[in-house]
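Very-long-chain 3-oxoacyl-CoA synthase (Caenorhabditis bovis), 324 aa
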Amino acid sequence: MLEYYESPLALLRPACFRSLIKDIPEIMRTAPVPLLTAADAVARLESYSRNSMDQILGYNFDYEKAKVFARSIEGFSAKLSGAYIVTIFSLKYFMKDRKPFDLHTPLNIWNGILSIFSLLGFHFTFPTLVSVIYNNGLTHTYTHVSELYTDSKSGYWVFLWVLSKIPELMDTVFIVLRKRPLILMHWYHHALTGFYAIVCYHEDNAHMVWVVWMNYIIHAFMYGYYLLKSLKVPVPPYVAQAITTSQMIQFLIAIAAQVHVGYLHYVVGVENLAVSFRGLVIGFIMLTTYFYLWVQFYKEHYLDNGGKKYWLAKEAEQKQKKSN
């Protein structure tokens, strides 16, 4: 066949030419590979976009289709994390000798939206979590893909949580443009969480749901706290301390779920568990480093020298008394 003819010059050799003539009938019988027309390409793209938007907007939510979409943006998510880090430090350098932007109103709107969104996410996921625990047991929630991921309410809001890690990167933009302190704990967790969420979601890592529902309720209070602080509403320091404490507890619980499912699958040898090696590794590294960073933050702000948050609150209170 044609693979015998290494180059066009080979056809000049009589033996090769005769062989080619002999092979022509067989070549003619070979069905040509159909080419994708421009119209077909556009139709496929429109179908993909429509199915993707159906999942994002919650129309006929389908877990398998949502996973396909998440898988399709994994590479984008990794690149976005890198671009995010470059962008925020470039912005920080740009703002070095400039006055901070006010952004008071946009920030209030942003915090309000995220607080309400997170509260809704908790509202739509937690009852299903309780139902799965009641019917199948606690272990089932982080070892198997249940209705927590697949039904039209809880499943959809788990999917929204995964996607929400992308717009949440705007948190850092507000910090940099307002020239507020940009700490490692903040930008590191924003850079990593989105990629973790997308990988764990499309690789069927059921343990992620314990990050999702706890993150929803904590963020509902956290962004609500930010909103009140931005509105100059006096909030006692112990509220912020309680939020930070709940975040550390969240990490420990999520780590425990991951360790248990990893032990069951890779040590005991239990088959058919909803876990992937990559999801476990990324999740374990992420959560343990988060826990370490949050502990350091907690020590600095609430324990060392009476707690930074507490003495700042006292200073603010004293200034207010003097102004009155």
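The CA atoms of residues 40 and 46 lie 10 Å apart. Residues 1-12 have pLDDT under 50 and may be disordered. ok done for today
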